Amino acid sequence: MANTDAPAVSTADRDQIVRLVFGTMAAQTLRATVRLRVVEHIGDTPRTAADVAAEAGTEEQPMSRLLRALTSLGLLNEHTPGTYSVTGTGTLLHRHHPASLTSFVRVFTEPAVVRAWEHLDDSIRTGRPAFDTVFGTDFFTHLGQSPELSGQFNAAMSQAVSETAAALPHAYDFGRFTSVTDVGGGDATLLAGVLAAHPHLTGVLFDTAEGLAQAPATLERHGLKERCSLVAGDFFTSVPEGSDLYLMKSVLHDWTDDQAVTILGHCRDALPPDGRLLIVEPLLPEAADTHTGASLTDGAITYLSDLNMLVNLGGRERTRKDFEDLCRRAGLTLTSSTPLADAEPFWLLEARLESGT
């Protein structure tokens, strides 16, 4: 017998839950689209499903079903039944688009990234990454054992950092410094943006050997090989000295608080008395905002990123107070935090040596 005392549930509330559940399927739809190079096969002029299927080497009917789904997601337009073109958003799934996100899609739908999410509840119970249990090793060790995945990861990070690389050079006074070391700077996309905008600076790119693999090509492409040196190493051991400005983007959120303090401590050891450390990370508010819309906001994505850090790496996203505490433990003082315009949800945090250190 129906419970007539049950509270009424709105259609909008039910629809929101359904949309969130189907988010996993939407992500895998993008993965298939990138793997089949659908956007590249359509190109700049409308193509039929039969044409795209022939180019991709698939059956026509399932390809037509994929193209309809992509249209519903805003990535394609269907002009006449069975004929499709690519939207502006969809062009970002073309490998050769200047702002391509194909590697980003590949990595964040990669089984090595998503399988541990099946055990999110275990990570919530234990506070430890599920990845280590699922794969028998930590994420970065696993990455180092797979050159193909490592290359995709580096490319994904490059694509993810492109907005920051465009915004950061104009969001901070780099003119008072002479040399900048990018700690954990990967393929040099961010450092190249800073150096290109500030010709007086020299640069040092510091990362593991795997992390630096694509950096020479980036520096060559920007004409910066003579102004930037590459140093391979481990920031849990030390950070190279010699710069008056140190930069870290999306490094600390990969690690536990104690590990983050170790990294910051090595940056402190390398800083000259008048040096500065720039930390570029998302910044969580002290209390989460409630969101009732159908799509994911930047704020919601940051909280999901926080869970991804837990599940796959053991790290976390942090509030300003969290960063203040980390810096204090490492002998640093956090002096400012500024939202990075045109690169949401990232903030620019500046730290200096603690007085008396």
Give Rg in angstroms. 23 Å
In angstroms, what separates the terminal alpha carbons? 72 Å
How large is the count of helical segments? 16
User: What is the helix content?
Assistant: 40-55%
> What is the molecular shape?
globular
Sheet with most strands = 8 strands, mixed
Low-pLDDT ranges? none
The mean pLDDT is 92
Number of strands: 11
Strand content: 15-25%
Q: How would you classify the helix and strand content by structural class? A: alpha/beta
Order of helices and strands: HHHEHHEEHHHHHHEHEHEEHEHEHEE
Keywords: Methyltransferase, S-adenosyl-L-methionine, Transferase
Active site: 253 (proton acceptor)
Pfam family, one: Methyltransf_2
Domain O-methyltransferase dimerisation: 19-94
Describe this structure in words.
With 357 residues, this protein is of the alpha/beta class. Helix content is 44%, strand content 17%. The protein is built from 16 helices and 11 strands. The strands form 2 sheets. Strands 4, 5, 6, 7, 8, 9, 10 and 11 form an 8-stranded mixed β-sheet that branches. It has a 3-stranded antiparallel β-sheet with strand order 1-3-2. α4 crosses α5 (60-72) and α6 crosses α11 (147-167). The mean pLDDT is 92.
TL;DR of this structure?
The protein has 16 helices and eleven strands.
List the helices and strands and how they pair.
Elements lengths: L10 H11 L1 H14 L1 H5 L4 E2 H8 L3 H13 L3 E5 L2 E4 L15 H7 L2 H4 L5 H7 L3 H6 L3 H6 L2 H21 L11 E5 L5 H9 L4 E6 L7 H7 L6 E5 L12 E5 L7 H14 L5 E9 L13 H16 L4 E2 H10 L2 E8 L6 E8 L4
